[in-house]
Specification:
single chain, alpha/beta, 180 residues
Length: 180
């Protein structure tokens, strides 16, 4: 998906956490992300936050954050590590950049939900969802099914995301049915 967004890009990838720079709309843009649809554990949250903190000394004009991660890792060993503090650090790093003038954007490329979504969306000046790929669930589907006894198999439309206040823009990448 980075190739659809950037004319050229250089990316580092480690265990689903990405960081790099790309050329977009005639300028260079820094980006970070969690992109492998696996739950965020303390190690991945730390890696992500570390990539963001590296920008604080020389803040970019814009930092794009990519997210494809439905939730945090709900395991006892992660709670013993106080996973929530690592997730808070992800948001704190983005807020620190924002306070230094960086415009933070969040693009949902796949699944997004729970505290991870909230931590990354809160410092963002805008949230975009990728057409036909993004699925934003403030509560993960399994939690909704456990509470209500049912789950929603079909992803909500972008209009529903906009009216719920969870996305501002929709990105249409690649082949889009009905679009010339």
């Amino acid at each position: 998906e980075l190739s659809a967004l950037y004319a050229r890009h250089d990316v580092q990838h480690c265990d689903g956490v990405i960081a790099g720079r790309g050329e977009r709309d005639g300028g260079e843009q820094s980006f970070v992300g969690i992109v492998d649809d696996k739950p965020v554990d303390a190690v991945r949250a730390w890696r992500f936050a570390e990539q963001v903190w590296r920008h604080v000394e020389r803040p970019p004009g814009h930092l794009e954050v990519f997210l494809d991660c439905a939730s945090h890792a709900a395991r006892l060993e992660e709670e013993k590590r106080i996973l929530s503090e690592f997730i808070v650090d992800m948001a704190a790093a983005l807020f620190a950049l924002r306070a230094r003038g960086t415009r933070v954007g969040l693009t949902i490329t796949g699944r997004a939900g729970g505290g991870v979504y909230v931590a990354l969306a809160a410092p963002a000046h805008r949230v975009a969802s990728v057409y036909a790929r993004a699925r934003i669930e403030v509560l993960p589907g399994a939690a909704v099914a456990a509470i209500l006894g049912e789950s929603r198999d079909q992803a909500p439309s972008f209009g529903e995301y906009r009216s719920a206040g969870v996305a501002d823009d929709e990105l249409k990448l690649g082949f889009v049915p009905g679009k010339p």
